[in-house]
Amino acid sequence: MEPIVEETKIEKDINLENVSLDDRPSENNKDLVDTTTETKSNEESDKEHQSLVQKNTNPVNFCIKIEGPDDDNQFILAELEKIKEQRQHLKEECLGLKGEMKELESERDKLAGLLKLMKVEWEKEYKKLQVKYQEVENNKSFLESQVNELQHEKARDQMELIELKSHLSELQHEHVKTQNELHELRSSQEAETEKLQAVENQKAALSKIFQDQENGLQMMMKGMAAERESWQQREADLLERQLVIEETLKKKECENDVLRKELESVLADKRAIKQRLLDAGKEKLIADGKIRELESVKTRSVYELTKSKNDEEKFSSQIDASKKHIEQQKAQIVTLTKKLAESETEKRKIIQMLEKKIEATERTNDCLMNDLELMKQDKESRMRKKFHEKEKNIRKKYHGHSRDSSFDIDKIDLLEQRITELENSLKSSNIECDQLRETLSEVQSKYLHAVSDKDQLMLTKRELDKKVKSLDDQLQDVLAKNVELVTRMSSQ
């Protein structure tokens, strides 16, 4: 009976290790305390039973009690020696298992420390991602403010166009005045026939002045038309830029929403996996409790067998009842193992779903990167075309009007500076998106490492369960041999 007590202690250690791995709440700890008290009481009863068995199995007492031939006594003594050897062998195996259990405890502590570190790192990375998301939103507000400034500049340019139109109307009014003066000069020419030569000279001078004015007006009209075209082109460019900026902002918002959804789905899957692990651990604790009940039933049945040597009929009926109860408990253990296998298959399915989601996110990231590169190329080509067109317009204006050209060149320089600033901001936002993708890939790799660590822990649990089953088989063999000895002694 000594190996039975030692094996019960080993099973207690295994159950305590499983509880520490699953991080059970305080209620489970109370249940463990109750089970430990029950096991202590069972150990005391086992010790009493062991003392009784030793008294009954002592060869001296046995020889005094039994009156029979010497051959039977020698046979019984030989069997008792064999049982003692088996007991010593089981003690040695129990010591080896204790050493292995200590090694597994050290490995478990290491893995628990690693899991805590991984949790801390994941929380830090999640906070970093939140900070980066806030920075992206700030950049978005900054770009919107710049778009508003460009709209204000557009309104100012429209006001300047209105002023130029008013200036053109004034020039037309002056032209009408000059035409009226010409009519007056013609009437005075008819009246003053004597001063024809002077009038003709004045007329020629006035005609030259008129031609110069007409040429100047034509040049002004051409300049105004060119300015109108340039302003229209600028308006179109500003609208295109505004649309491009809005599209980029929408894409970034979509990307941020996708990242949020992916993070939320990963966290939900992680919580579901934790809950399922906790459920599996609870089922395992229930199975362990039932195994303990079986062991207590076994010990009680052995104790009742030793007491009821004279009552053979009652003894046989109790053995049959205990066997039926053991078979029922075995069936329950089989159902629990099936449930554990089903939970493991569900875990594997969930992991496969997560891997598929990760692959889909990687594909979407690649597509977005390709779209961004195409947008950059189109933007650069458009900027080059616009720059060449602006150079041509500036050259035309420089030949026509030197004063107006200097004013327009300053405006163009300011617009180009703002365009470069917007391009730099877009580049910085693209860099931030790349960094976010890198952090996502790192988080995914760490999640895969954590899943592999969990699989290793499950393998260690399975190995421990196998060892516990082997110990149960050995216990059953020893109990069967003890029962056979008791039956032989009772029959003799």
TrEMBL record:
<feature type="compositionally biased region" description="Basic and acidic residues">
    <location>
        <begin position="16"/>
        <end position="33"/>
    </location>
</feature>
<feature type="coiled-coil region">
    <location>
        <begin position="73"/>
        <end position="202"/>
    </location>
</feature>
<protein>
    <submittedName>
        <fullName>Leucine-rich repeat-containing protein</fullName>
    </submittedName>
</protein>
<feature type="compositionally biased region" description="Basic and acidic residues">
    <location>
        <begin position="40"/>
        <end position="50"/>
    </location>
</feature>
<feature type="coiled-coil region">
    <location>
        <begin position="319"/>
        <end position="378"/>
    </location>
</feature>
<feature type="coiled-coil region">
    <location>
        <begin position="249"/>
        <end position="276"/>
    </location>
</feature>
<keyword id="KW-0175">Coiled coil</keyword>
<feature type="region of interest" description="Disordered">
    <location>
        <begin position="16"/>
        <end position="54"/>
    </location>
</feature>
<feature type="coiled-coil region">
    <location>
        <begin position="412"/>
        <end position="481"/>
    </location>
</feature>
